[in-house]
């Protein structure tokens, strides 16, 4: 049995039991109801199913137990880290693409430029081995081109783009991977960079950091419709629900109100209102007024 087949079976079991507790027979029925799973022959014996449960706990840190009273299996502990979840999600996407070939408009993709992901393997190698890299960089703002030689620190995702966090001379800067050309990994090692990326971006939204804004409590009021969406897909890991009724849904955040965050709020238009702090409220109000002037 191939590794691909085994991973696919694990993913199927996880996705089924995340919906609701089920018996072994119900899980097998759900698998058999999926044409792709049936084609891949993902049905298993109860003995294999028990082994799968142990392996899922070991690999994904998702603990599945059985309720002896109802004879149903359920997910007890789900501490799957973000790396494992992304690998699983990407595996499912790749499998869906494979399945859709030859079926016309089964999957509709957005038209977009390359994300620069072809550089990721080389940059990860350079980061892990502390090797200086050189590349041609095409700026977003003025379309100027410059040659950079930097010490790579980490790769960070933000709003469907990947960025290289690197020491450029005496400063740590962000470089969008899709703006990097002619990447060259040198043989020159650099000293460890004194930069904790998790601390630096912990209270930030997006990719902009290192600014003068201090992290503070932010309270936002969303319309019920938009609020339910934000509740299911939080703006920031600090998001906390503080009020929910028929008129509004409020969340609190501990975050730096940087340019990225302000632009995100503006994108919601009249579906969001800043409650506090007053400084952020005024900044958003000013931008909205400026936008209105453009239509006069």
From TrEMBL:
Residues 119-183 form the WYL domain. Residues 216-292 form the WCX domain. InterPro entries: CBASS_pafABC_assoc_protein, WCX_dom, WYL_dom. Transmembrane segments: none annotated. Pfam families: WCX, WYL. PANTHER family: PTHR34580, SLL5097 PROTEIN. This is Helix-turn-helix transcriptional regulator.
